[in-house]
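Quick question: what would this complex look like in 3D?
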Amino acid sequence: DIQMTQSPSSLPASLGDRVTITCRASQDIGNYLRWFQQKPGKSPRLMIYGATNLAAGVPSRFSGSRSGSDYSLTISSLESEDMADYYCLQSKESPWTFGGGTKLELK
Amino acid sequence: EVQLVESGGGLVKPGSSLKLSCVASGFTFSSYGMHWIRQAPKKGLEWIALIYYDSSNKYYADSVKGRFTISRDNSKNTLYLEMNSLRSEDTAMYYCANGYWDYWGQGVMVTVSS
């Protein structure tokens, strides 16, 4: 099975900060990587697909990148509405696997 | 407007069975694979099953293989998850999502407890 190692698990940050969350894949997944945002009591929301593509309606301050087996989600200037949990997902093959999650919170 | 609405959850005893439903609207359900995903209380997301658009292929996580069955009825725009031999560790919010992961239901809670 492909393991997705996500870091950090918790990320205290201030409004306006540039923040980056990373997932490392244990095997080659190409660009089959998605990022989700989940707010308390809500369903996950797709933010990035194909490692670098912004999903519909997602603000342009969000971006995705890849360097080898490391995949990153970056928020260029943190806003209060971005405080949430974030998860990566490899969608290359079964079993589809999520990273452990990152809790983004105000410092 | 795309909607996925889950139902069928509840409180059941260990060893019991339960069948979840996910009714889709606002898109061509019969053209999409569909996933079930769950999230235990205060834990992360866990993918548990996928069914192809035509039911030709089904995939399961090891944690539910042999106990859960995913199915669909394209004439009713409905996805199902039949859960047997339920365990306490199956306690979670269960979500359905489309094959491209861009539409999710609101989730339905399943609690397995004696």
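Answer marked as accepted. Chain A has a mean pLDDT of 98.
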